[in-house]
Amino acid sequence: MSSVVHVVSKQDVSKHSTFSLDNKFPKLLESSVRVQTKIVSLTSNNLTYAKLGDYLKWWGTYPVPECSPSPYNNRDNFGIVPAWGYAEVIESTIEKIKPGVELWGFWPTSSHPVDLKLVEAEPKGHWIEVSQQRSELMSLYNRYIEVTSLNDDEKAWNAALCVWECGYLINRYTFPDDNKTSPIHPLGVGLPWSSDDADLTSSVVVSLSASSKTARSFAWQLKRNRNLDANGPLGLLQVSSNPEKSSDDHPTNLHSEFVSYKDITSEETIKWITKFQPKRVVIFDFGSPPSVVDDLKRSLKSWSSDLNVLVVGVASQGDVQFNTSGVRDKVIERQGAAHFKSVHESLKRCLNEKGMGELELVWGQGVQGANGIEGSWDMLCNGRLDAKKAYVFKL
């Protein structure tokens, strides 16, 4: 029996290929499981991280198998893109994890089985990958969770909305939605982040790349999961290539507007922002085109040179960078298992409210071909993945 591996060039991620490998493996090590990817999703984040792969130690997650054919066995030149989703345990030397168990986590976009070295964590059913090759990877990508009682559609939405936790953490902890939570610096490390830094009460928020799944989740948090009267913001400007007013039809007290990038510095847009007389404008950049941020900052400063403008880089550079893994680590220190329950409940509520707008689930099949990982990677690199669709694959 053979499996299929998808590799991309580390020097030019638009160059990629697939090949087959025989499923012949050495004896499984102690405290390990052998797993095979079953369901994963591709999003724009996969492309962003691939371009930063060496810096983030991302390529070390699943190195190309040594038995791969030349030239793909050169790990300096080729890597396997990881993605969020589900895998099945096919062999195990861990007593508490039996073959057939499904795990949620970060998987290769290939059907070739891989080995994980796991130690038990809290809460029950959580495991941490501790192999040397993954030691420099952010903790977010080394946590695996046992899964029960989910149908394929539920798994697909969880995989497609893997970025959900980012918006939740920004809203709940970095810019807290209540007055009792001590704010956490966007990087999550022990850097100063005061209540004034985290205060949105006199701010207008601008969301760039608003049609992305991360930005959609953040917008829902602001509109539907926040005490706006007490904690702001005053308004939300959502900016994208193709503004989707139809996704803004849920009851909310938050004043919001949708504009395109070409209109972001127009007189009408600046008037909309400044009509709230904000003391600060907080720009969350979820992956905007070049120069958008600088152009907007110049336009805002022309209205008032004293206006405080803060850029939070989520999928791009900013005045401060947001790191989901770092903030999550701090939250787990505080909340423990309760954090995972809260995130799940907020996602479930959002889906019940259709809070992600007109997002459509699209199933792909396998690794190779136009309908598989291979074809969608082409579309992703060429900017042709539809922002209104969530692409999920059965491998």
Automatic annotation (TrEMBL):
User: Where does the source fall among the domains of life?
Assistant: Eukaryota
Q: Which InterPro entries match?
A: DUF2855 (IPR021276)
Q: Name one Pfam family in it.
A: DUF2855
Name by which UniProt lists this protein: RplI
From which source organism is this entry? Acrasis kona
